What we know:
Belongs to the pseudouridine synthase RsuA family. Keywords: Isomerase, RNA-binding. Residues 3-64 form the RNA-binding S4 domain. Its EC number is 5.4.99.-. With 233 residues, this protein is of the alpha+beta class. It folds into three domains: 3-54, RNA-binding S4 domain (Structural Genomics Hypothetical 15.5 Kd Protein In mrcA-pckA Intergenic Region, Chain A), CATH 3.10.290.10; 63-123 and 205-229, Alpha-Beta Plaits (2-Layer Sandwich), CATH 3.30.70.580; 128-202, Alpha-Beta Plaits (2-Layer Sandwich). It has six helices and 17 strands. Strand 15 and strand 16 (205-206) form a beta hairpin. It is elongated and about 65 Å long.
Amino acid sequence: xxxxxxxxxxxxxxxxxxxxxxxxxxxxxxxxxxxxxxxxxxxxxxxxxxxxxxxxxxxxxxxxxxxxxxxxxxxxxxxxxxxxxxxxxxxxxxxxxxxxxxxxxxxxxxxxxxxxxxxxxxxxxxxxxxxxxxxxxxxxxxxxxxxxxxxxxxxxxxxxxxxxxxxxxxxxxxxxxxxxxxxxxxxxxxxxxxxxxxxxxxxxxxxxxxxxxxxxxxxxxxxxxxxxxxxxx
Length: 233
């Protein structure tokens, strides 16, 4: 049955429909060897390529949660050592949803669902992620208030955050954006150096007691909640 080209690509790759439209506009998508235009329809009998890569038949959608260890890189480049993809099954092509820097640990979602990936990572959706942070000095309430109300990073104010003290040097913070090294930079702004940074939650999905370096499949209920929370249901 014919379907729109952007939907066809999103169902079979890491790209969302919006990203597929951008690739089409850049002339990077062909159908049976001919550049395609937005809005075109295709079937499984057609050969669709994106930037020279053939888009195969739709794979079953997979959703994994990994408790990323410190020292592993969040990348899809299999040539790089200490890659988070080395820690999960390699029978299906999976993509990390967002990033955790090499010195951070915790919840990392991996999937082949391009639409969900886009909803969770595009800044305009402002989906909440929570972290537990340990710093090198005793926390003060005035500095925690600065983190709560937002600070200026590269001339742009961060969105308000939910901050809760856990110990003398530890706190949790929930943010709705994902600027590069944002929490580390926010802490540096108020005079703290981060000793440990661990992501514990993405929307309703919590890390729980999953062991560091281990992974598990999401339950059907967790997938439903994620897709509902991101507006896909």
